[in-house]
């Protein structure tokens, strides 16, 4: 069963952040607008301290 990060599951958070993959893996030198939008969306879903902790664990 997928662990939920607020209203978003861990799998949904990871999928949402896929536009950041080139930057995170060193294939792109800078963040892109789609990556920033994705981070904003995931951050908006995690509105509590516990949700941020859950998201951090998910992304590890």
Automatic annotation (TrEMBL):
Species this protein is from: Corchorus olitorius
Molecular-function annotations in GO: lipid binding
Upper taxonomic lineage: Eukaryota, Viridiplantae, Streptophyta, Embryophyta, Tracheophyta
UniProt xrefs under Gene3D superfamilies: Plant lipid-transfer and hydrophobic proteins (1.10.110.10)
Protein name from the UniProt record: Bifunctional inhibitor/plant lipid transfer protein/seed storage helical domain-containing protein
Family statement: Belongs to the plant LTP family.
Top-level lineage group: Eukaryota
A Gene Ontology BP annotation from the UniProt entry: lipid transport
Chain ranges passing through the membrane: none
């Amino acid at each position: 069963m997928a662990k939920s990060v607020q209203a978003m599951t861990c799998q949904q958070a990871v999928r949402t952040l896929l536009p950041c993959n080139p930057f995170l893996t060193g294939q792109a030198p800078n963040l892109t607008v789609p990556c920033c939008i994705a981070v904003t969306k995931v951050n908006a879903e995690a509105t509590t301290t516990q949700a941020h902790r859950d998201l951090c664990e998910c992304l590890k």
